[in-house]
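Reviewers asked in the last cycle whether our approach scales beyond single polypeptides. To address this, we selected a multi-component target totalling 583 residues and predicted its structure end to end. The input consisted of the following lines:
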Amino acid sequence: MVEVHDGPPMDGFSVPLRLHNLLLALAGRIDDSALTEARELIARAHIDEAVELTTGTLIAGRITVSSAEQRELALVLEMSRSDATLANDLLVDEAELVFTHRFTGENAPEFGIAEALDRTLQVLPDVRSVHAVWRNTPAGSVPGALPQRVVLVELGPEGNPPAVAFRVDTALRRAGIHSVVEVSGPGVARSEYHQAAASAASPAWVTGSAPSTASYRSEPVKPSIPASPEPVVESGSRHSMRSTATAEPVAPVVPIVSPPPPPPSPPPVEPRKPRSETRAERTADLSPAEVAQLRQALAEDPEKGREIAAGKPSMQEVVELPALDLDDPSLSERDRALLRELHAELAERERAEAAKMRLNGASRSGGEQRGWTAP
Amino acid sequence: MDPDIEQSTHELLLRLAGRLPDQLLWRFRDWLGEGAMGTLARTLPRSLLKHRIDLDQTEYRLLVAGLIPHGADWHQVSSTLGVDDVTENRYTFTSSAPEWVNSVDSVSVLIHATLRGRPDVGEVRQSWRHVGVVGQGTAKRVLLVTALSSLPRLTGELQRVLRVLGDEEPSVEVIPPRFDLPGYHRAALADSELVCVGAVAGTRLLAA
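The resulting structure, written as structure tokens, was:
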């Protein structure tokens, strides 16, 4: 359970976003119907109805909240001109509560989601990734059918979480995909529920520059993670409510949509010499300025970005992949994730090209064989 | 909870079937079943006003009797009393299950297993509600149960069962004896099938 109040201060958030973040904290504790309906009400500017539904569901279900959550609900009730005394009926319990849910990524929870969201993801700004997972445990006092598909959407700073939650849910329902949609933006710590879900989730759609489920970690990622071509997925990570509350919030995600415009003249550092370097060398040795440029290119056109990183190599180029320099202190965590992804991409290309060479040779010999045997 | 207050609110929520959106109605009934009267008092009158649902005099009296003692806003409650006649039922009902319910209707089977011979429960029937022309659009199951006591709790219990079985916004009408049935329930009963009978034999649901 995330502690939205003892973590990052909520004062800077708008009322809809405060309630959205409260709902994130209540995911897995109240029923999925209430979550979905409340999010739709927020998106439709019916904040009062959304907070009344949320508070009423907690009261009637005798679902305990912390005193900080009670205060936040009372505040949102007040700010949405509802009856703030409703919050007095909430059951407050400061004891450490553990809501353990079981998630599984088996049986293709992501099936059909990318297709169903095709148009939605083209239109909505700054959606970074969509993951899906099955939840095998009931939520709230009036749970729905199980297993419940949970769709986890990761947004950048340009995205609006309540709006995206509603639109994604609508698109999935239209496609006959029943789910509860959890949308996380930057600057809010991930709850234990969301971390557990993310650790088992399968990617349904990921942008070229988006980090994978690793971005759901609530604590800042240590800079000395082992170099691995694949994103690290933490399995079975469990954080109690209190430990989450004391953990530092996730560092705000570096905006990739609107970075500062690249300088009009070529950067003075390290003039590009595509033919004199291998792709991997260029990838590993990118300067921070080039990384920024690359991020922008990836955001606009992932393929173009990869070409920049690869220096448009020729097929005949001999490539040796050096170890990734992930300990470079000038690189941010996002840069490192980006470099790992590019490194993996290059390695994959190398494997594909090598396999293609072998296959071409084999098919040629096969063709010759057929030529020999066929009359 | 005062049984009269509880009974008043239950009857009011019965009469709102087919008028208040399903997703609100089942939730309010769940809250009543859990005894969250203060919550209902603060939310139900506002919902009626927001959804432009006018009450007739009988319903208005039920609202006053049920929710004013629990702190409902008098101004809001007063505003719910309408002058024009309440719109009659706009749904059509059929007794046969739609095609998407396969030959084994597990919901019926479970309701039968739960309510057959149960104390204080009479007849249990079900009907399928359609919007507009039958066969176009989706059909919704409406469960019609007669019971002598603990009506809100029985409603909540059956709603939870139906939700677990996949009906997100269950329509469970638990009707007290000698209840003047609204048009919605009369129409549903007229095209319904028997699921089972509880321990209270002779408590029949008859469309007027």
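Chain A touches chain B through 26 residues (CB under 8 Å). We regard this as preliminary and will revisit it once experimental data from Aim 1 are available.
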